[in-house]
Each structure stands twice: as structure tokens, then as C-alpha cells.
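The data are quoted verbatim for reference:
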Amino acid sequence: MRRRFLFSAALGTTLGRLAWAQPVDDRPSRPPGYTVSADVLQRSVAQRFPMRYPVQGLLNLDLQPPRLSLLPEQNRLRAEMVVEATGPALNRNHRGSFDLDFALRYETSDRTLRAHQLRVDRLRFPTLQPSVVELLNAYGPALAEQSLREVVLHRLQPQDLRLADAMGMQPGAITVTPTGLSIAFVLKPL
């Protein structure tokens, strides 16, 4: 019995020393969070299109699903938008495009990631007369910004936030990375 005790004590001491001697992992610990891959984000956005925006009985602008690209150095996303213009003011359908970039914000009420701080580039319609394109460019960016601001890009599911909720946390800063989005969890306000 005494041998077992001494053996156990020696083993415990040896294991304790080995554990103490292990090199400390000097990588910075990552705060808790959630990631959304670029593919998941693209599929989620595609479900919300096409969108139609009428321009006061003159024409309709139909926005097709955008092609997203990540801009990690600016912490923003870019969307290449294809737009089809139709209506009484035009002789036929015209296909064009424009680019916009935006930041993201989290909306707590419905667990969504939304477009925020939009910057719209010029509309391009190669088949329209330049004067009509200029008219569209006069009003188009404001219309695009107004209609696309706060567009839902992704919705987090309750199971995505279950651990954060249990820890009294919620989504905070959203960081655009080369592979998708990283959403940090922060303490919920009291």
C-alpha cells in the first residue's frame, strides 16, 4: 500500500513538472466570435435578388444578384451590380452595370448583417445614348444608395449565437478578411 502511495506521489510530481515545463503558447488568444465565408455570404445575398425599383413611371431598374468581392484592406465589400432598364421612356431593354462598396453593421433586432456606408460608382449602359446615361448617373447613385442602404446580406441563426447568448455576449465589430467575415463577440450592454 505504501508503495502505491509513493508511486502515485512520484508520478504526480513528475507529471506536474512536465506540465510546468511545457512551453507557453505565445500566440495571441482569439476573442470569441463567428465567421461567415465568402461563399456563404454570396449565396445569402443572391437569395434577396432580383430587386425592382421603379423610377416615377418612366422606367424600371431591375437589379440582378450582385457579385461580391472582399476588400479586407478597407474593411469593406464591393458589389458588382448588373441592372436592366426597361419602361416607357426607353425604346427597348438595356443592360448596364455599376459597382458599389460598403461597410457592414449588425442589427440586433433580427440578427442580420446589413450594408452600411454605401459608395456608388457611375452607372454604365453601353447601349443607351450618352445623354440618357448622364441623366441616369444624375439620379442613379442616389436611388441606388437609398434603395440598397440597409440591404440584408446575411442572417445569423439562433444556433449561431447560442454560445454567445449563454456567455452574455452579442456580435460586435465586423472585420472583412481575405476569406470572408469575422464577427467579434462583445459583452451585451447592461
Observations:
- Residues 2-21 form the longest helix (20 residues).
